[in-house]
Design brief:
6-stranded antiparallel sheet, Mago nashi protein
Length: 163
């Protein structure tokens, strides 16, 4: 009888440990030491229409660089409002949970866009995720995190093409 109780106890404990390990924890981040970098890579189109960009943000400022296949077209910097940084930090902390179901795209995806987000605390990379978006990929957790940063800039003007 004692042996059965011991085996059941071990099984329940092991199951609990497996379940606990499967749930991603939120990131513990110090806002004054954290930086967030969001990269959007445009689809494969002629250079005059191609617009990719990188936003780098800290608690002090955000900067954006717009390029066409590596040729820098525009750069801007904006002050970081405290409310915006608080929102970005909340979104960054929850990235592991919000991205846990993201899977690689199916083979044959060509010409789509890609989004990448990197969260650093000091020099240490705390989180990184890249999502290929080929016909409706699960890019929303990354774009939702980038949205408050994009709102600091006139994205329509920055991304206009020479059509």
């Amino acid at each position: 009888m004692r042996r059965r109780i011991a085996l059941v106890s071990i099984a329940v404990f092991s199951l609990g440990m497996l379940t606990a390990c499967a749930v991603p924890n939120s990131l513990k981040l110090n806002p004054s030491e954290t930086t967030v970098e969001y990269r959007f890579r445009d689809s494969s189109v002629p250079p005059k229409y191609h617009r990719s960009y990188t936003i780098k943000a800290s608690d002090k400022e955000a900067s954006i660089t717009v390029d066409s296949y590596g040729d820098v077209l525009r750069q801007e910097t904006a002050a970081m409002p405290a409310e915006t940084w608080t929102e970005v930090m909340d979104l960054a902390r929850s990235l592991p949970e919000r991205t846990k179901d993201i899977r690689a795209p199916k083979p044959g995806c060509a010409g789509g866009t890609a989004s990448t987000i990197v969260v650093r605390e000091g020099e240490q990379e705390r989180y990184s995720q890249r999502v290929e978006d080929c016909g409706g990929g699960p890019v929303t957790p990354l774009t939702d995190t980038a949205a408050p940063l994009e709102a600091l800039f006139d994205m329509k003007d920055l991304l206009k093409t020479g059509a």
